[in-house]
Predict the 3D structure of the following.
Amino acid sequence: MSTSTPAPAWWRHAAIYQIYVRSFADGDGDGTGDLAGVRDRLPYLRELGVDALWFNPWYVSPLADGGYDVADYRDIDPVFGTLAEAEQLIAEAHGHGLRVIVDLVPNHCSDQHPWFREALAAGPGSAARERFWFVSGGEEPPNDWQSYFGGPAWTRLPDGDWYLHMFAPEQPDLNWENPDVRAEFEDILHFWLKRGVDGFRIDVAHGLAKKAGLPDAGPDPDPTDLPYQDVAEVHEIYRSWRKILDSYPGERTFIGEVWLPTPGQSAQYLRPDELHSAFNFEFLCCPWEAAALRGVVDFTLTAHAPVGAPPTWVLSNHDTIRHVTRYGRADTSFDMAAPRLLDPSDPGLGRRRARAAALLTLALPGGVYVYQGDELGLPEVQDIPDELIQDPKFARTNGENRGRDGCRVPLPWTAEGPSLGFSDSAELWLPQPAGWASSSVAAQTADPASVLNLYRTALAVRRARLEKLPESLTWLESPPGTLSFARGDFRCLVNLSAASVPLPAGEVLLSSVPLEQDLVPADACVWTLARS
C-alpha cells in the first residue's frame, strides 16, 4: 500500500499580491481606488498567477496615515465601499482561486475611534484612559521615546495628561495590558474569520507590548533591546490569537510585520504556536551584491529552521522605495531610517536588475510577496509636488522626509485616457507621472518581453515546478559576483557582476533578459533544468 506525502499548507509557498486599495483601481470614478475597482480586476490577478491577495487597511478611517489610523475595525470606509461589498469581494476572490488576507492594526487606532473619544471626554484617571497609555502631569514628555514618524512619541492634552503615539498623534497606542483591549481584538478576529478571510497581516506585530514603567530608551539605545518593541509579553498575545485562528477550518494564517534588527529576533514570532510567517525585511534592505544577498538568504534559512517556519521574500511594499529605483542607485541598499528618497537613479539599470531580482526571489524556497506595480516594473515617483504630498512623515519632519507617497501612486492600466485606465476621473488622490503609458498593463500585455509577461511566466513555472519542493537549497559553485543554487533538478543563476558569465548546462526554462548565445549577461538571472 503506497502512501503519499501530504501537500504543504498553502501559506508555506504562496505568492501573495499586496493591494494598496487607494491606488489599485477606481470603480466609482472619484479618483480614489476602491473595492469595486478591485472586483473588476480580479481576473487580472488570477491570470497573473498569484495565490492570495493582501489588502492594506480598508476600515473606516480619517486617513491620517493611509488607513493605518482605524476608527472602526468592523466596517469599510465609505471611500472604498461597504461591508457588503467586502463580503462579495471575498467570495468572488475565492471563486477565482484567490485567498484573502486583511490587514490588522492592533498597536494603535485612530484618535477618532470611539474609545479614544470616550477617553478624552472622561478625563484624567478614568477607566476609559486605561485602554491607552496616558500619563499625568509634567511639562516634559514622560520619557524620551521618539515617534517613528519624527518628533516626540507623546502629545500633551489641555488637562495635563500625555498620551503615547509611536506613530502620528492621530494614532494613539493601545495598552495591551488592559483586558478590554484583549477582548476587543479577539472579537475582531472572529468578526472577519466568520466572513471568510483566510488570514491577517499584523501591522507592527513587534510593538504591542511595552516595558514595565515605560523607561527611557537612552541616548545610545541597543536596537535589539528597546523598551517599546520586541518585549517578551507580546508573544502571549499571539499564542492566544493562534488558538482562535486554529479553531476555524481552511488553513487560515497569520503574517507578521516584524521589523527587527536580526532574523533571529523575528523568528521568535514564528514558533509553532504563534504566527505562521513574517516579512523578510533584511532581504528587502539588502544591496544588489552577491555576497550580501547570499548572507541574508543563509541567515534567513538558518533562523527559520529551528521554529519550522517558512522563509519569505519581498522586494518592495507600501512603506519602502520601489526596488526598480533602489537598484538603479549607486547605493542599492535600503534603510527605513535614512531612505535617501531623492538619490539619483538610472531607470534602465534599475529595471534590468529588478527583472533579475524577481526571478531570484521567485526561485527561493518559501513564500513571496509582490507589491502592486512590481509586476509592471514601476519606479518610485520622486517628483510629487510638495502641496500634494499626503504622508504624515512629510509634515512631521518639516519636509526633510518626503515620505512614502512615491510608491503609492495609482497604477496605470491602459495606454490612453486621463488617468491611464485607473479611473474615469483625471483628478486622482495622487498624480501619475508623465510617461507611464508604456508601463501600463495594456501596453505590457502586448509586449512578450515586458516585465508583466516575465512575472506571469515565472509565477506559472514556480507553481508547476517549485511549490512542492523542500524548503531548502544547495549552493553551487559559480563565477565571482554570481549566485547559483539548486532545488532538486531546478537551477537558478543570478549574475550580479559587471561581465557576462557562462550559461550553466541544462534546459533553459526562463531568463530575465535575452541570453548572449551561451552567456548570461550582467545583472541577469536564468532558470535552468539539469539534464538527467
